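BUG: 3D viewer hangs when loading the predicted structure for this chain

Environment: internal workstation, default settings.
Expected: structure renders.
Actual: progress bar stalls at 90%.

Input used:
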Amino acid sequence: MRIRNIALGGSLSLMLLLAACGGQSTGGVITEGSSAPFTLAITAPFTLGASYQSPSGITVLSLQVTVTGAVLQPGNVSLINSPVTVDLTQLQTDNGLLAAVNVPTGSYETLVLTFANPDMTIFDGQGGTSNCSTGTICEFQPTLSASSITLYPALTLTANAPAFVELELDFQDLLLTSSSLNLGALTFLDPPAVQSDVEQIPLNTVAGVVTGIGSNQFTMTMTNGESLSVIVTDSTQFAFPSKVRSASKFSCLAKGQIISTDMSVLGSGAVQANKVTFEDSSGDPAIEGVIVAIENTNPPQFSIVIHGESPDTNGIDIGNLAKVTLEAQTNYLVDSDGLTVPSAYTFGAASDLVVGQEVLVRGNSVQVTAGSNSSIAISTNQLILRQSQWTATVRLVNQAGAVFTLDSLPDLFTTLVPTSISNLYATPSSQTQFYFIGPTSLGSGVPVTVKGVVFNNRDNAVGSPSVIASVVVGAPNQQQQGD
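Structure tokens produced before the viewer hung:
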């Protein structure tokens, strides 16, 4: 789906067998001196009942693995130069890019992927796991099991002809238990026909820091720590606040800026920027995460599970729990990524915070305490509301899909303070992208994954959580995109 990331602590090898049509070996002939662009991506399409709550009551807030190697055989052709960390919970409405390189042409029989450092952060709402006490959030390292998968037909690369392969992860098969992961849930999508200048997958709302500027190109370090080279074209849009820059264009981009980008991975493997949005230039680290608790304190405080940071801050990793303190005169911003947000939806005070919101926190002060009582404390004077994604069930539809209500929410919403949230009001628009389901196909009991900006108010009523939807994903067996 191309829409819009052994023993404990060890590594596992996953052998992906590439056989020819009819199952015969191609002989593994590699052509010296010629190459072809090769792109490897990963996604996790919607699966019925997944909801990141398997077993019952477990809400997976972060689930990351590190891809330490991706090697084509024969020839021992490595696709990655350094380990790539992927947060698997972000892949139901987003794609993960693992590799985009030129490789020698020829026929390959196997692709060996190696993984390490699995890490999971969950909320246990009903006592469904031995890893956490009921009603708590905890981070631990699950075990991984190896498996073998066969891809048909053989992978044959010809000179200058781009190739694109996507791994598909089934979450329902992945989460066998709360502490055991089965990467045998990885399968291959059939390789599509590829054109060098045509988008293969989008990479949307990717935050990071600009680390270099070139000719029609810039380099950014994303919040997962990976570096990415991005090209710009005449059609690339730039969005800078007028108080920051008098114009919005490529020349306004500078090293050290925190940006959010919508990008396309082309058949050639190049990553092209479609839109670049300025976020910050204070020089302080940007720490992204999902709000999991809000405290009635003075000054206001809330907790997040970290989904990324940029630049790197010692002692902070994806999946960590951190407490954020809002300083006086905190600046509240909304990164809607072009979505039209009705004026009734506001984000300008601590009362507008709610669990389930994804935020980008300016780390004015970051204190990390190591040891058995480790903790992360962040003080901020700028908070940017960004898009998050959640799986739930449609309960009520009004106006032919113009507004619909979601219930059967993850226990994160229904259990955690400050209030029990039993439903979310979802508002799509002409900008909303529908996959495997159309707006008029939304009906009571239909499971969907919705990505969008979550607000704690609707029609000026605080405490009525709502989501302005950018992406709605249904089960693949429900319907093709649209109606």
